[in-house]
C-alpha cells in the first residue's frame, strides 16, 4: 500500500456522525499534482460527514479544488474548477478475495474504499475522488489552432458524419 500524500486518518471508534473539513497544504497539493500528472493544484478542500452502517461507514460531502492541467492537444495550461458531490463507503478489507479471483461489481460497489483495522483514510479517499474528476481529454481554446498547425483534421472534419458529408458531396458531383 502506498503512503498517501493527503492522509487524514479517522478512528472508526470516533467516526459515527463525525463532520470533517479537509484542506491540503501547498506541499500536499504539489505532491498530488505530481501523482496525477497535472501541472498543479492550487487549492483542494473537502467536507465529509461519516455515518456508521454496521461495519461500514458512509461518507457524504463536497469536494472543491482549483487545478491547472495541460490541454490534451496543445499542451497549454488550462485552469479548471472542480466541484464534486462526494458519496463513497468505507468497507472492511475483504478477507476472502484472492489476487487472481474474478470479482463481479454492481453499481453500489464502485465507490467503496477498503480499510483495515480501525483507521479510515478520508484524505486519500478525497484525493482519489479528485483524480477521478480530472478530465484526461480536456481541450483549451488553442486546441483547434494546434490541430491545424500539425495538419490534423478538426472535430467537424473527421468522424462518421464527416464521411457521410463527403459521400453526399461525391454523389452530387
- State the total count of DSSP E strands: 7
Enumerate how many helices there are, as a single number.
Answer: 4
What are the low-pLDDT stretches, counting only 5+ consecutive residues below 50? none
Overall mean pLDDT stands at 86
Give the biggest sheet.
5 strands, mixed
Compute the CA-based radius of gyration.
Answer: 22 Å
Helicity level, as a percent range?
25-40%
Strand order of the largest sheet: 2-3-4-5-6
**Which class do the helix and strand fractions yield?**
alpha+beta
Distance between the termini: 64 Å
Beta fraction: 25-35%
Number of self-contained structural domains: 2
Overall outline: elongated
Task: Give the topology string: H per helix, E per strand.
Answer: EEHEEEEEHHH
List keywords for this structure.
173 residues; alpha+beta; 2 domains; five-stranded mixed beta sheet; two-stranded antiparallel ribbon; 7 strands
What does this structure look like?
- With 173 residues, the protein is of the alpha+beta class.
- The protein folds into two domains: 9-141, no CATH class; 144-173, no CATH class.
- The chain is 25% helix and 35% strand.
- Strands 2-3-4-5-6 form a five-stranded mixed sheet, covered by helices on one side.
- A hairpin with a 6-residue loop joins strand 4 (56-70) and strand 5 (77-92).
- The chain starts with 8 loop residues before the first strand and ends with a helix.
Amino acid at each position: 500500500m502506498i503512503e498517501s500524500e493527503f492522509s487524514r486518518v479517522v478512528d472508526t471508534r470516533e467516526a459515527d456522525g463525525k463532520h470533517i473539513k479537509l484542506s491540503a497544504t501547498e506541499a500536499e497539493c504539489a505532491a498530488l499534482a505530481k501523482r496525477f500528472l497535472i501541472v498543479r493544484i492550487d487549492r483542494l478542500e473537502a467536507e465529509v460527514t461519516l455515518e456508521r452502517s454496521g461495519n461500514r461507514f458512509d461518507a457524504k460531502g463536497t469536494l472543491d479544488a482549483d487545478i491547472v492541467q495541460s490541454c490534451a492537444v496543445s499542451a497549454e495550461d488550462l485552469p479548471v474548477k472542480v466541484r464534486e458531490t462526494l458519496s463513497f463507503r468505507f468497507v472492511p478489507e475483504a478477507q476472502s478475495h484472492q489476487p487472481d479471483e474474478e470479482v463481479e461489481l454492481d453499481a453500489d460497489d464502485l465507490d467503496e474504499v477498503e480499510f483495515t483495522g480501525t483507521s479510515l483514510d478520508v484524505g486519500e479517499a478525497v484525493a482519489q475522488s479528485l483524480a477521478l474528476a480530472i478530465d484526461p481529454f480536456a481541450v483549451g481554446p488553442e486546441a483547434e489552432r494546434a490541430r491545424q498547425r500539425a495538419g490534423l483534421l478538426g472535430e467537424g472534419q473527421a468522424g462518421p458524419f464527416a464521411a457521410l458529408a463527403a459521400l453526399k458531396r461525391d454523389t452530387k458531383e
